[in-house]
């Protein structure tokens, strides 16, 4: 059969969901207003590139906690959403603060004032025709549950998560269509993500945020989260069959450092352990064979109930969403230099890539490779819900911010997304991370900015909180208006 030229997709689909992404714990603020309880992030002190972010075991007077004010979206959401609308957003990825709905996690009834706040946010988005993409839980849990049983270390957490999830599903069933179950769920299995990703404490004193948690505990936590995610998918479809519920993974793309077969196998092994275990469970509905071999060889005794297998099989997601910022290489050789830009990533530097001031290696073509890799394996729609460049921006005297480096980063990735679509990938959304400047999740600082909108706030919480449009604001507006065609 001769190929019809119409079979070749030439660009972004007309209903493509251009937008931006945030998380409640990094930009919302209002940490103790409207009946909100204390979350895991509310206990974190500020850090920087050289000073690790730390976890406090109690709120102390005279100490700066970045999430307490965030960038004050709680009070300025109408102003911010109007700016998103001015850029032409079709979608806005956000999360719901668990402790705004259930302050300790244990309440029998939800906090109405918290529910009403999100009603107002969704109504404001609807006014401008912006589709919310809502992460149910984004690196934020009730701190009370941390103290009680270290959150996802315990199977009890599934029931607390389901109570929270059912509440927001039912409340917003006519306002939200797209849901993500748990943010970057696969990173929970990485040794430095125990507290951030799973709310697991390790030690009695105040801890550096990248504290180590033993891998067996983390893979056990991952299993509980996968079960909870599957139960959420099933429940959501019962409440509203029109819901589209997706997984969310930090896709950590690994290349072999060279063509040494040992390097090739190591890169494949890392991809499987970090990305594909969670992906296969959430999309295919069961653990892959290599997961059981991995658990056996490591000596991990992952407790799985008989009912879990049916829950996982029944609760597969409708689409996959990913964060993608960079790639890393894997090698059996020593002394190649570590990819040290992000505390959750292992690997070596790639000599063919440029490195940002925070040590992240930009790899736009790696995004095309990753999208094809995911599509070839799963054949379900894909969203890129995080991508962007953290950089130091300068606010000029006239209120302008010249961030051509950010424009280049986003442009290069948009080009490669378009190439992936032409390859046949069903990509349906792109929401760059931190579309408005917010608190860095990994370091707790403001200097590491991602946004198209500048927020006047420094690392110590000083500033007017006023918003300013960067050069990238006007550029991204043009990209959206042209559906990804005008990238100049």
Automatic annotation (TrEMBL):
Q: Gene3D superfamilies from the xrefs?
A: Glycosidases
Please give one Pfam family short name. Answer: Glyco_hydro_1
Q: Which domain of life is it from?
A: Bacteria
Provide the GO MF annotations for this entry.
Answer: 6-phospho-beta-glucosidase activity
- Keywords of this entry: Glycosidase, Hydrolase
Q: Which SUPFAM superfamilies does this chain map to? A: (Trans)glycosidases
Output the InterPro entries linked to this UniProt entry.
GH, GH_1_N_CS, Glyco_hydro_1
Q: What is its EC number?
A: 3.2.1.86
Q: NCBIfam families, from UniProt?
A: PRK09589.1 (NF007154)
Q: Which family does it belong to?
A: Belongs to the glycosyl hydrolase 1 family.
Q: What is this protein called?
A: 6-phospho-beta-glucosidase
Source organism of the structure: Breznakia pachnodae
């Amino acid at each position: 059969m001769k190929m019809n030229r119409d079979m070749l997709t030439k660009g972004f689909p007309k209903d493509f969901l251009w937008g931006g992404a945030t998380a409640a714990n990094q930009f919302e603020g209002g940490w103790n207003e409207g009946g909100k309880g204390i979350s895991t992030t509310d206990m974190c002190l500020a850090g920087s590139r050289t000073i690790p972010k730390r976890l406090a075991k109690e709120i102390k007077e005279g100490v700066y906690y970045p999430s307490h004010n965030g960038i004050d979206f709680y009070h300025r959401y109408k102003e911010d959403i109007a700016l998103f609308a001015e850029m032409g957003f079709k979608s806005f990825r956000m999360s719901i603060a668990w402790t705004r709905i259930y302050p300790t996690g244990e309440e029998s009834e939800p906090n109405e004032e918290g529910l009403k706040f999100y009603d107002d946010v969704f109504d404001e988005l609807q006014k401008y025709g912006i589709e919310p993409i809502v992460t149910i839980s984004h690196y934020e849990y009730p701190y009370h549950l941390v103290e009680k049983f270290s959150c996802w270390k315990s199977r009890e957490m599934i029931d607390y998560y389901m109570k929270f999830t059912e509440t927001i599903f039912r409340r917003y069933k006519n306002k939200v269509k797209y849901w993500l179950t748990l943010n970057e769920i696969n990173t929970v299995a990485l040794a430095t993500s125990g507290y951030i990703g799973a709310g697991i404490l390790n030690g009695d004193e105040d801890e550096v945020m990248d504290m180590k948690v033993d891998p067996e505990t983390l893979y056990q936590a991952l299993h509980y989260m996968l079960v909870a995610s599957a139960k959420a998918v099933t429940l959501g479809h019962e409440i509203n069959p029109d819901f589209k519920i997706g997984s969310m993974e930090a896709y950590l793309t690994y290349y072999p450092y060279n063509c040494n077969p040992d390097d090739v196998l190591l890169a494949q092994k890392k991809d499987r352990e970090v990305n594909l275990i969670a992906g296969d469970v959430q999309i295919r509905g069961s653990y892959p064979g290599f997961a059981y071999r991995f658990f056996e060889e490591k000596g991990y005794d992952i407790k799985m109930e008989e009912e879990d297998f049916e829950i996982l099989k029944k609760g597969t997601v409708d689409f996959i969403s990913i964060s993608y910022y960079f790639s890393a290489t894997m090698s059996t050789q020593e002394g190649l230099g570590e990819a040290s830009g992000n505390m959750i990533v292992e690997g070596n530097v790639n000599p063919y890539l440029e490195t940002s001031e925070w040590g992240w290696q930009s790899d736009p073509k790696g995004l095309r490779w990753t999208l094809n890799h995911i599509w070839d394996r799963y054949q379900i729609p894909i969203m890129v819900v995080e991508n962007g460049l953290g950089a130091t921006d300068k606010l000029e005297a006239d209120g302008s911010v010249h961030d051509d480096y950010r424009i280049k980063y986003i442009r290069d990735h948009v080009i490669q997304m378009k190439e992936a679509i032409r390859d046949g990938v069903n990509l349906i959304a792109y929401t760059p991370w931190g579309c408005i400047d917010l608190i860095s999740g990994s370091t707790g600082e403001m200097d590491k900015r991602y946004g198209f909108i500048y927020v006047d706030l420094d690392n110590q919480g000083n500033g007017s909180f006023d918003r300013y449009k960067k050069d990238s604001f006007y550029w991204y507006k043009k990209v959206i208006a042209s559906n990804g065609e005008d990238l100049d």
